[in-house]
Design brief:
- About 5% of the residues lie in helices and about 40% in strands.
- By secondary structure, the chain is mostly beta strands.
- Among the domains are: about 5-70, no CATH class; about 175-265, Immunoglobulins (Immunoglobulin-like, Sandwich); about 270-335.
- Strands 4-1-6-7 form a four-stranded antiparallel sheet, with no helix packed on it. A four-stranded antiparallel sheet has the order 3-2-5-8, with no helix packed on it. A four-stranded antiparallel sheet has the order 12-11-14-15, with no helix packed on it.
- The longest helix is centred in the N-terminal third of the chain and has 11 residues, at about 85-95.
- The N and C termini lie far apart (about 120 Å).
- The relative contact order is 0.07.
Length: about 350
């Protein structure tokens, strides 16, 4: 057998040889074959046999003989595993021979609750020194296949992937809204705004329909769920406009459409009254007009002697007027533009 090496000691431990000589052990000492390891009460010792197995712990108050049987690599004669009891051999022979009565072979039963007696009134037994069983290969198999799979309960079965027992991931449908849509004109300058929001979506398909026809845009949704369309550079004449937005997710699922309307009409202006005259050496003048879709009107008056005067007047209830009473208006021809 391989020698055992002491790798740890708690309390005290000794080694006693066949002649009765005793030596106290320390960590690193080696126990030889034939020696007996003794540990103190409440102590312990851990041994390493150098066989690649885990160390063996010897509890306190124990006596362990170092024999070849402790070596897992030791080859043992198979005859040592046999049960050689003569009574057992006789019993086996009686079972094979119909002419032999088993009652003649077996011990007579004794009265009372005790065990059967032997010929001398005592008891007999078969002593098995060792029992060996072939377990080749020496291995264990774990998992479902070791026992042929899990048992199937009555009325039930194991669920496999794809059956109803598998959790289904539910992907919510996308949604979209149009936050602001405005196409307008101020002082003959057209402006436009088109923004919105979306949830559970990666992109938005936007369709704009107006006097010039239909234009389609595909825009992304940002991390905050917002989207926008830049209409700069498009010709947006006066008229009515309609926008339709549809959100789309990664699976291609589309949302219900969101719609909005906008548009504008260019302003108009008219000069209703324009007179400049003299009566009794007093000059009188009147200039007024009307306007639609406008808040102010720019008016330019041109007259004799290089006269040119510009006015910015407010439109109130669709009407506007210019006060010319403070101007010096010499004799001559005048024109006005609004």
């Amino acid at each position: 057998m391989a020698n055992a090496t002491v790798i740890s000691i708690t309390g005290r431990a000794w080694a006693r040889d066949a002649e009765g000589n005793v030596r106290e052990l320390s960590v690193g000492d080696t126990l030889q074959e034939g020696e007996v390891l003794e540990t103190s009460d409440n102590g312990s010792a851990q041994l390493d046999f150098g066989d690649g197995q885990d160390p063996i712990l010897i509890e306190g108050g124990e006596q362990v003989a170092m024999t070849p049987e402790l070596d897992v690599d030791e080859i043992v004669d198979a005859s040592e595993f046999a049960a050689l009891d003569e009574d057992l051999e006789a019993l086996l022979a009686a079972l094979d021979d119909d002419s032999i009565d088993l009652l003649d072979v077996l011990d007579a039963t004794a009265a009372g609750a005790g065990p059967g007696g032997a010929a001398d009134g005592g008891h007999s037994f078969v002593r098995l020194a060792r029992i060996a069983e072939d377990t080749n290969p020496l291995a264990f198999e774990y998992g479902m296949n070791a026992l042929g799979g899990l048992p199937e309960e009555q009325g039930g079965a194991l669920l496999t992937a794809g059956e109803e027992g598998e959790s289904e991931v539910v992907i919510p449908d996308p949604t979209v809204t149009i936050t602001t849509f405005d196409i307008s004109s101020t002082n003959n300058e057209v402006s436009s705004v088109l923004v919105g929001a979306a949830t559970n979506a990666t992109g938005v398909i936007v369709t704009l329909t107006g006097p010039n026809g239909t234009v389609t845009f595909e825009v992304d949704v940002d991390v905050e769920g917002n989207w926008s369309v830049d209409l700069f550079g498009l010709e947006l004449p006066e008229g009515s406009y309609t926008v339709v937005a549809i959100a789309v997710n990664q699976q291609g699922t589309q949302s219900e459409p969101a719609t909005a309307d906008s548009g504008y009409t260019l302003p108009t202006v008219a000069i209703d009254t324009f007179t400049i005259g003299s009566e009794g050496n007093e000059v009188g003048a009147e200039l007024n007009g009307s306007a639609t879709n406008a808040s102010h009107v720019g008016v330019t008056l041109t007259g004799p002697n290089g006269l040119e005067q510009t006015f910015d007047v407010e439109v109130v209830n669709g009407a506007w007027s210019v006060d010319l009473s403070e101007l010096e208006l010499p004799e001559g021809s005048y024109s006005v533009e609004a």
